[in-house]
């Protein structure tokens, strides 16, 4: 079992920045791919950024050049640095962990990000 706890959401003006954090309950990065997803009202949940066990990253086209996913192995933390935020980035952001060797697929409770003036 893996617990994921997000933090760092809030209200920010357009053009501003936020850093989301995801605390994992144990060291999992060697066997779990990590991702940040978001879900806006009335829309499907979508992948924002992914980070593989090997350190490869991938981003949704809408956030490339603005968002950065990273991890701290020693702290069992995953981060999403979000810069130049836009109103369309408003959503609940979720941390996700998918195991490469089992059927494990875990979600955090989500953190709200609102971009508005």
Task: Describe this protein with a few key phrases.
mainly beta, seven-stranded mixed beta sheet, four-stranded antiparallel beta sheet, globular
Give the overall pLDDT as a whole number: 96
Percent helix: under 10%
Shape: globular
The ordered H/E elements are EEEEEEEEEEE
Give the beta-strand count. Answer: 11
Distance between the termini: 40 Å
Structure classification = mainly beta
Gyration radius, rounded: 13 Å
**How many helices?**
0
Q: Assess the beta-strand content as a share of residues.
A: over 45%
Low-confidence stretches: none
Q: What multimeric state do the chains show? A: single chain
Largest sheet: 7 strands, mixed
Compact description:
The protein has 117 residues and is mainly beta. It contains no helices and 11 strands. Strands 2, 4, 5, 6, 9, 10 and 11 form a 7-stranded mixed sheet that branches.
